[in-house]
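Sample entry (181 residues):
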Amino acid sequence: MRFLAGLMVLLMSAAQAAAQAQSCEASVNAPIGEVTAIIDGGGALVSWAVEPRIGVGEESDHFARPGLLLDFAVTRSGALELAAVITSVTRYEDAATGRAPTMSKVRVVARPDPGAEVSWPSTGAARGESELGKAMKARWPDTLMLSVIYDGTLVAGSEFDLSTRSEAERMAREALGRCGR
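Predicted structure, serialized as tokens:
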């Protein structure tokens, strides 16, 4: 019985080591942002942290420019298929600017060109980002404008150049290649 228990521990350790050996993460940076490929036992995922356009957008005392992360699933043919859209709204406070406004009055507005606007409360990001993802799958935009609205007033915004998707896909292939895929 002890022999079987020891053998089982050894086999489990070997399986974990083999699974870890198959995991890989690699990234490539460029002016359009950072593309990261993650490969594990469940497949491959590519994330593109899109760099906002320089000199375009808004910030305020309590809100930074919003961010954008696009996740892509790697299909069997090697194509990248949009899997998720993640937006980030950063709110901050300090002694000079005082207490930060409550997030319950914050809305995010996404304007993919030339499509209709997609809007959601900051507390409902999952549903809003899902709706934006569906719109982007239906028609890939050249640009995406994200605006942060607090109590009806624009407090932060960013514009993203998504016409560079082919460059992001090239970077993804490079990152995947670093992982031997």
